[in-house]
Design a protein that fits this description.
Layout: E1 3-8, E2 13-18, E3 24-28, H1 34-47, E4 52-54, E5 67-72, E6 78-83, E7 89-93, H2 99-111, E8 116-119, H3 130-166, H4 169-183, H5 188-203, H6 208-220
């Protein structure tokens, strides 16, 4: 009994159909995730009994999808592929020198269709590489904590220095009040008004004094 071997590549996941001797019979296409790769294996099990269409015969029988197709490539090697219902190729066979050997490869896949799945993609993940990476990040976090404490102490010193600078600001307020107190007693306008008032009284001389001098002169005659 053969087996399905799931492997990991740079672009995703794929599986091989291997015989009992470990020889690769067919290879699947690339899949982005492992679950989609396993779904392709389930689809292969369902479509394994599809008819075989020989493309090397011009007037040979044609079948609708799903089906097996055997053909000859540019190197003149015989290969097979399994076409799904949607027209996508599920697996490709290895190159064979004769058509008989190519069709025997299709029969081998059909015979090993219920084989077990061996997941070799798990061993290729290398989980040991992730653990030291986690330790490095933890070390960075611990290194940042004492730096944060030092930064907290520095602004505390600056705030105390600012409060000490604000205290002499009260002296400037006292200087302003003294200047205003000097300006208040200097009122020149009130002194001028007091001088002008008696000047007006002296200028206004009544003519009654002149009339009193002239009256006794008339009596002497």
């Amino acid at each position: 009994m053969g087996k399905y071997v799931i492997r990991k590549s740079k672009t995703g996941f794929y599986f091989n159909v291997e015989a009992t001797n470990g020889q690769v019979i067919a290879t699947a296409q690339q899949y982005k995730s492992k679950p989609s790769c396993k779904k392709a294996i389930d689809a292969l099990k369902k479509l394994a009994k599809s008819p075989i269409e020989d493309l090397t015969i011009k007037d040979g029988p044609k079948y609708p999808n799903p089906k097996w197709q055997v053909y000859q490539d540019r190197k003149k090697e015989f290969r097979f592929r399994l076409v799904a219902s949607n027209g996508n190729n599920l697996i490709w066979g290895e190159g064979y020198s004769t058509m008989q050997a190519c069709k025997a490869g299709v029969l081998s896949v059909q015979a090993n269709v219920n084989s077990e799945i061996e997941d070799k993609a798990v061993a290729e993940k290398k989980p040991a590489d992730k653990k030291p990476a986690a330790k490095k990040t933890a070390a960075k976090k611990t290194a940042k904590k004492p730096a944060a404490k030092k930064a907290a102490k520095k602004p505390a010193k600056k705030t105390t220095a600012k409060k000490a600078v604000k205290k002499p600001a009260k002296k400037t307020a006292a200087k302003k009040t003294t200047k205003k107190a000097v300006k208040k007693p200097v009122k020149k306008t009130t002194a001028k008004k007091a001088v002008k008032k008696p000047v007006k009284k002296t200028a206004a001389k009544k003519p009654a004094a002149k009339k009193a001098v002239k009256k006794p002169a008339k009596k002497s005659k």
